[in-house]
């Protein structure tokens, strides 16, 4: 990956209903010298689009490279400036030789399904699991991590204790607004923000909507274009396109107002519901020929899948 165009092509090639990763090559120096790694996210609050977790890492001896790239408080940088810095990370030889990065794009569907699961996963849990998996992947790639800096999710003390337990041989620092304090976290934030921005720019509506990011806005609930999208792009039966985090209150309230009302029966969880060895009634109607059939185009176009209600 050597340009923002290449990043967009990569993002466009992925299934935006599922989580996926993007990353740089690991600089060889990061396997031999002690390194620091920063963790940050982008898109935690929006009702539209993915949340992206990013990590960046480089040798402790090469802090000056982060300064020369312009890594500072990423929230104070314009979108153009973040694109410029990320382009340098992709193209300038000094950066390629010393700075590595990895990002996880967490789909809106995954976020909402996690929050609606029977054993619910909060957004904090989704965030922490992503950060932990990214750190572990970097370690598995052979990077010699000595220090980790993380922009906190929830109370920093608890998060730091959790990470220290998982990675006991690495110095862990978890802090509020870490991206404005530690350049390596700012670099991670730039990776996350640029990846999310461009994921929205090339978003492919599987539902057949013909529109681009300029028509649905930033995805934040206060954005007028996002409000318009949430108000207008709702199907009476199927609800929202996959771009929408349907577990967000903004979307929930609109679904309650405009979508068909659904009533779900309570599941009988009695252990004596069925005697041992008794066949389920559905088995009498199951075809003897187990050959799988191709799913109807109606379900394919709407990205509908079979699910187990008892999960």
Overall description:
The protein is of the alpha/beta class and 311 residues long. It is built from twelve helices and six strands. Strands 1-4-3-2-5-6 form a six-stranded mixed β-sheet, sandwiched between helices. Strand 5, helix 8 (156-166) and strand 6 (171-175) form a beta-alpha-beta unit. It starts with a helix and ends in a 10-residue tail after the last helix. The mean pLDDT is 85.
Features:
311 residues, alpha/beta, six-stranded mixed sheet, globular
Topology diagram in text:
Blueprint (H helix, E strand, L loop, with lengths): L3 H10 L6 E4 L5 H4 L2 E8 L8 E9 L3 H7 L9 H13 L1 H6 L1 E7 L1 H9 L6 H18 L4 E7 L4 H11 L4 E5 L7 H19 L22 H9 L16 H10 L38 H5 L10
Parallel strand pairs: 2-5, 5-6
Antiparallel strand pairs: 1-4, 2-3, 3-4
Helix pairs in contact: 1-9, 4-9
End-to-end gap: 39 Å
Amount of helix: 25-40%
Number of helices: 12
From the structure provided, what is the oligomeric state, counting identical versus distinct chains?
Answer: single chain
The biggest sheet amounts to: 6 strands, mixed
Report Rg: 22 Å
Uncertain spans, ≥5 residues at pLDDT below 50?
A: none
How do the helices and strands follow one another from N- to C-terminus? HEHEEHHHEHHEHEHHHH
């Amino acid at each position: 990956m050597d340009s923002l165009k290449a990043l967009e092509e990569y993002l466009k090639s992925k299934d935006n209903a599922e989580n996926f990763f993007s990353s740089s090559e690991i600089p060889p120096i990061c396997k031999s010298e002690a390194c620091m790694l920063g963790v940050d996210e982008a898109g935690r609050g929006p009702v539209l689009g993915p949340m992206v977790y990013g990590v960046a890492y480089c040798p402790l001896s090469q802090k000056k490279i982060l300064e020369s790239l312009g890594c500072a408080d990423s929230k104070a940088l314009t979108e153009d400036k973040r694109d410029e810095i990320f382009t340098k990370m992709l193209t300038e030889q000094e950066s390629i030789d010393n700075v590595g990065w990895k990002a996880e794009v967490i789909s809106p569907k995954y976020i909402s399904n996690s929050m609606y699961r029977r054993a619910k996963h909060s957004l904090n849990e989704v965030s922490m699991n992503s950060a932990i998996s990214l750190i572990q992947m970097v370690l598995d790639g052979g990077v010699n991590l000595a220090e980790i800096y993380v922009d906190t999710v929830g109370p920093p003390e608890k998060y730091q204790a959790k990470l220290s337990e998982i990675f006991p041989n690495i110095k862990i620092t978890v802090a509020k607004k870490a991206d404005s304090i530690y350049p390596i976290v700012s670099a991670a934030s730039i990776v996350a923000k640029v990846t999310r921005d461009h994921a929205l720019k090339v978003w492919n509506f599987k539902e057949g909507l013909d529109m681009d990011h300029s028509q649905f806005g930033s995805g934040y609930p206060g954005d007028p274009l996002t409000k318009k999208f949430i108000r207008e792009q709702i199907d009476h039966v199927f609800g929202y396109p996959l771009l929408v985090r349907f577990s967000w209150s903004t979307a929930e309230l609109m679904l309650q107002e405009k979508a068909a009302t659904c009533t779900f029966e309570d599941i009988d969880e009695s252990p004596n519901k069925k005697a041992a060895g008794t066949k389920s009634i559905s088995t009498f109607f199951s075809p003897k020929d187990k050959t799988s059939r191709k799913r109807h185009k109606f379900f394919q176009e709407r990205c509908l899948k079979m699910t187990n209600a008892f999960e």
